[in-house]
Iron-regulated ABC transporter permease protein SufD
Amino acid sequence: MSVTEQTATEARPNVTGAVETSDKVASHLHPEGSFNVEDHPMPNGREEIWRFTPLRRLAGALEHRPSDEGAAEYQVYEPEGIQVGTLAQGEAPRGSVLLPSDRAAAIASAETPQALHIKVPAETVVPEPVTVTVTGAADKRSNAHYVLQVGEFAKVTLLLDHRGSGVHTGNLEVLVGDGAEVTVVSVQDWARDAVHLGQHEAVIGRDASYKHIVVSLGGDLVRLNSNVRYAGTGASADLLGLYFADAGQHLEHRQFVDHNAPHTRSNVDYKGALQGQDARTVWVGDVLIRKVAEQIETYEINRNLVLTDGAQADSVPNLEIETGEIVSAGHASATGRFDDEQLFYLQSRGISETEARRLVVRGFFADLLGRIGIESVRERLTEAIEQRLEKAGV
């Protein structure tokens, strides 16, 4: 059976513990995916999935062409206990999780002849993060595709660290085995002229946990789709994000949680700060609760802190519910400036206005920073946030 045929298999049993595996998503906000680039026409900006993205700034990222020679350097740190290799197109498990939902993801798949394959055997605990560092070259285009395959009851953290310049499209598909614990941290710390489009997709096994953390600081334009679905009951997903847009930057994050199995859980929590003229952030979250997904729990929230005039944050939470037999489901969104009461409280205790504002921003991000389990990354991000506040005089 081919990869396409595997992902197209339909199974819709209406019994406790069932998993709905049809590739035809019932969501109104997500078109049917395809590996064929031509099935994803060049967007014009009127499409729902592209209406927030400034297409003129994509710098050719949607042109169907291979990577330029020397477009990016890839460094992989392989802790003991893992297996690293490659997967050709159509070679399982590549393509068993990710079905490209837009033109960029289809191009990244089609133009990556050999995907990086990271395999963690069953019951293996990897003590250090597996690290993939991508350093792009200026004025060049690169495509990438990664597959993380984690066996039953294994535990691992993967860090994707994006640096440098250029135009990059990258896919990640994650297979989380039953009872496994997987954390993925994706850092976008590009130079200011870079463009990055990506799709990250995970399938979570029975009683497994998956944490996906996105941190976007650099780049001219970054647009990431982070999606999950379930392969068994008891599975849990946490999708977390932290972003800080400076003048002229466009940072766009989209999440889709497909509750296609009963007794599953999800939590989406994204926070962003904006400063400077024409700083723009977009967050679109969507949770689909299918008919078979009884007794699930889900919540999604996005909060934005606007630090200066001239910045704009768009926040669009969505819930699509096809069954009423759920434990809880909710969503929230908030965008605002500094809390005057917090500033007054701090200043009344002798703290200057500038330092008070910095303390508020630090507190705003503190929870998410604390949930990044890699100390070196946490320190690096804290320093980067401080530098931005210093630059803005906040």
Notes: The chain is about 15% helix and 40% strand. The radius of gyration is 21 Å. Residues 1-16 have pLDDT under 50 and may be disordered.
